[in-house]
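[PROTEIN RECORD]
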Amino acid sequence: MEDKSMKLRPMKRQRVEQSSSSSSSRSSSDPAEVNTTTTSVSLTDLLRAGKWNEATKRVEENPNEVTAASDPSPLALACRFGASVECIRRILEVCPQKVRRLLDSRGTPVHEAIVCENVGPDVIGLLLKADEELGADSPRATVMQDVDGYTPIHLLIRRRFQSHVLGSGEHFMELLEMLVQSAPESVVIPDRGEYEEPPCVMCLKANVYAPLLQLEGATAVRIERDIHDMVRCMLQHYPSAASCVFSGYRGKYTALHSAVFHGRCPDTIRLLIEAEKRCPTSSEEKPGLLANTQGELPLHFCSMRGEPPRTVALLAAGAPEAVSKRDASGLTPMHWLWIRFVSTLLAIDDAERGNLACIPIKKSCNMKTTESNKYSSFAFLEQGDFEADLQFVRRVDPSVDFLRMRHIPGEVLDETDALNFAKRTETILQHVRDRHRQLGAANLDENDDNDGEVLWSRVETVASLFWTKVVSMLKAVETTSDDQDGFSLVQAAFKSQYCPPQVGRIVASMYPSEMADKDENGMLVLHHAALRPWHAWDWPRNTTSDSANAQLLELESASLLRTAMELSPLSAGSQKDVTGRLPIHCAIPTFVRAFSSSGRLCTESSVKEILELLTMFVKMNPDSLHQTDPNTGLYPFLQATAVSTEEASASAGSFPEEFSLSAVYTLLHADPSIVRSGIR
């Protein structure tokens, strides 16, 4: 799960007697290394020499050598050097207990057999059967651990996965299923390394243990398929593995964390989420909501790395609460989504290929535009083909590695640059949507060729993938789906506490008519934005060494509200909800409580920002100064005083009275005649 996990740890296992596969491939036809007869040569010498027929005969003639208390045992040596099936069968018939004989540096005979790539399912089957028939009086060989903490499944993944992908290894998946089926609980036994990885996690990063594999083209697809098959096998026999919580370098984690961190394909992510649903854990340790020491959830990893839209949708739908969770730096998954998108645009611009590299994309059969899919289908470029989708996304919008996943470019922090990126994205997406609608209309023509291709620029493709991820997150948090009355993507963005202002601007620009729509409570987007609570990161730190995330989040809530006011129709300031509240009535208690709960000093910039927002509300509807809040029956300037008094009484510390006085003064200054009005 963690950054350092990409480094290979040297193995402690010392295999001095097996330096290459050539020694394990000796057969009875090889030149004898011991030129004596079977009557004078020990069974051990025959096994080391690879004389399987003679060794088998020796076992029959002198079974005491099999049962002798010697290490390594004849069974271990037979497995180490790849003895014949008949030879191992005879040894097991004489002393099956040796299958559970453990040597720290070598493991059990099952470990030895797994390491020897010449050993196939026939021999492994014999060993597992003998192990099972010994009963539960002693620990199973399949769960015993060597000095590194490796079980046979650990060794299978580390020693045979690479050759399996390269095509030089046989029976890999067959052996894995045999081991898992024999001892399902072994898939969650952690090793003794720094990261304490169980096999169900090790298989998710199996490509790390295969340095010769090239992660491009067909090989990358093969790797993903094989890892998917390994995970499916383990979860089929032990679904609880998806719910198990392990201890790692950065605290607790699950298989889901590792899968996302190492960029596994959406199909593998789905396997883990579905298995966890079948065998759920406690709510506190639900994989999708379990944070590491940096407060990062799987959905954070997903956004930080720039994973495909399907992965984002699966994680958001599987744990909707994760969408609004902040990591230790105060950033939500939506923030990281925006950061990674801007980083990608910068990389494309640097390469000067944003509008030049045209990508042919097959027309989708789902290109018909309807109200039910108006938010997302026009940008959904994955078409349900495992290989094609995997290669397409990795070629067009590849995820970043663990070294860059937490990087925040300066262009995201600069207000002007961020605004320009947002406006640029609006233009791109609107163009893509218009073209999608044209294609959808063309698809209605029976004479149209649905198998044709459409050329997209890379910028268009990346922006569309980003949009799909945004929609997935916003939809996941809402209890209603977008094919039901009452759902508004724009309202979902502005009433949330996790949506960056730039993303809110993009959403509102895509669907400007929704800025004037009311929800079931008669509330506009402006009402929701005014009610959005401020978070602790909104407040300036009064330091010249602010981290990038602190700069990004400073006065974020104010910026989102300002965006809502700019993009709302002028009449929005005069609209009341079903209780009779104007947007300014919603904003005043939000402002006062923000200062009360911030725990920080009122800086000049924060006070100035809020007073400017109050002034903007008054400009939108000057008559609002003369309309009372239905909850308190007070005019706005008195409402500010009342809320301030309430907060000061409830506050354990000092309450910043200077802000409340400034707010009252600002409202009175806008229309001093309000003083003459009485309280209704």
About this structure: The beta strands are 246-248, 251-253, 358-362, 453-457.
